[in-house]
Amino acid sequence: MITILDCYTDEPSGLGVPPYLGTYPRYLIGYFKDATYITIDDLRLHFKYNDRVPETKQNESTRIDIYNLTKNRKDIAEILECTKTLIIVIGVNTPGKYLSAIPGTIKEIKEMLAGFKCKKILTGPVIYGTGIFGGRHSTIVKDSFFDEIKDFLLTFEEIDKYSVLGTKLLEQIPDIRIIEIELGKGCIYGKCSFCTEPLKSKVLFRSSDGILNEMKSLYDRGARYFRLGKQTCFYSYPEAIKLLEDISKELPGIKLLHIDNVNPINVVADRNNDVTKAIVKHCTSGNIAAFGVETFDMAITKENKLNCAPEMAYKAIKILNQYGKERGYNGMPKFLPGINIIFGLRGETKGSNAENIKWLKKFLDEDLWLRRINIRQVVIFPNTEMEKTGTKFLKKNKKYYWKWRKEIREQIDLPMLKKVFPTGLVLKDIYTETYQGQVTFGRQFGTYPIIIGIRGRLPLKKFYDIKITGHMLRSITGEVYQETFHETENKKDL
């Protein structure tokens, strides 16, 4: 018996941490045909909680370490006993903070499976290193605990086949998942000092027919939430407009269609803004283009061979605001940019964040909306340019990072949130996910959705329309406007 253990993956070109369902486990299910799927949450329930889900008391927070259980959770002991080959999917290349999931770690796997006798194959982004936290070197696995460390190098012809076969994985998952759809591999520019994407593959694009066939198969199994991710720039995809048009035509009941990474250069190069217009027309509201600007300090941009200068980012932000600022059915702007900023890159100085603030204030002053600003410290992966630099600049400027982060959060994030999410605005289809004491946290399904704190303990895994009442530095508060019904609550869509 072959078992796929999903420890959840997060990388620059793809999300696989719930509520997202990544590509790796789906392809492997299709590849091995009769494999069983379990998650790290199933394993924790078995080893930490003796297969019993503990009741969460009124003053306790939701146990997100066992939040994402599969339908196989009650049979874990039997599954482990019958498993001859265990394939472990793991790896975080882009550290983040997650609302309702905790990615598994190598240390955790070793502790739980220390006495487990079977063939153990390690795969996923971990092959290139994994790092749950920024500001340090990634973890490289070289020990003998795993029998094999393998990169399942599938061609797109194979992916087209196995992705369809792997859609049966949905039968083993009781909750809603946003399905990550792979469009391509590699990066056209591929020179950024810290990035692992150029190490994984040369630039290749999947056929639109293959993508559409996979999505149709998922759709037929009830999936309604999709993200066109697993790529370094959506605008680079040769058939971007046709793909969006075909999805709209072939999947009429879709509830979510979002993209991810976008290179600002390609937004500006789209002279008639045809791709931007197609995204606004065919995708669902709340869509975000993640701009890997990384820094607005031009000296750092040059030193790290980054592919986007501040002026280019500014032009792209203006374009997306021009076409995507209008609010859609769910209360969200249709299509906005998001900014990624990385601390610890080569050439960083005490004045670097002043450049970030200068440009971010310019956007604020010109009423150019940003949906989110993602700030993290660089993780150093082997075989990247940053490996040569090491932690030199991380150590040099360590004492400034929390100060710099605070400056951006207070001076930019808070006033920007008040623009994008004004008090009194009603956001539809907020899905309640977790408790922290007497507060319920929820969010819309989508790419990087805003987290909303609602006073009181509402039933979880339900949909509500929420009226905004206040603002935190990176989240908002709200109150119930009305409860809404979705067929997904009864698992008809999944």
CATH architecture annotation of the largest domain: Alpha-Beta Horseshoe
Largest sheet: 6 strands, mixed
Structural class: alpha/beta
- Helical content (DSSP H or I, runs of 4+): 25-40%
C-alpha Rg, in Å?
22 Å
| Beta-strand percent range | 15-25%
Word description of this protein:
With 494 residues, this protein is of the alpha/beta class. It contains 16 helices and 21 strands. Strands 1, 2, 4, 5, 6 and 7 form a six-stranded mixed beta sheet that branches. Strand 17 (426-436) and strand 18 (439-443) form a beta hairpin. Helix 13 runs parallel beside helix 16 (401-420). It is globular.
List keywords for this structure.
single chain, alpha/beta, pyruvate-formate lyase- activating enzyme, OB fold (Dihydrolipoamide Acetyltransferase, E2P), 3 domains, 6-stranded mixed beta sheet, 21 strands, globular, disordered C terminus
Task: List the topology elements.
Elements lengths: L1 E10 L2 E2 L4 E2 L1 H10 L3 E4 H10 L26 H7 L2 E8 L13 H7 L6 E5 L24 E2 L6 H10 L12 E5 L1 E2 L11 H4 L3 E2 L2 H13 L4 E5 L10 H11 L5 E4 L1 E2 L1 H6 L4 H9 L4 E8 L3 H6 L6 H15 L10 E9 L8 H14 L6 E6 L7 H5 L2 H5 L4 H20 L5 E11 L2 E5 L8 E4 L7 E9 L4 E9 L10
Parallel strand pairs: 1-4, 1-5, 3-8, 5-6, 6-7, 8-11, 11-12, 13-14, 14-15, 15-16, 19-21
Antiparallel strand pairs: 1-2, 9-10, 17-18, 17-20, 18-19, 20-21
Helix pairs in contact: 1-5, 5-7, 7-8, 8-10, 13-16
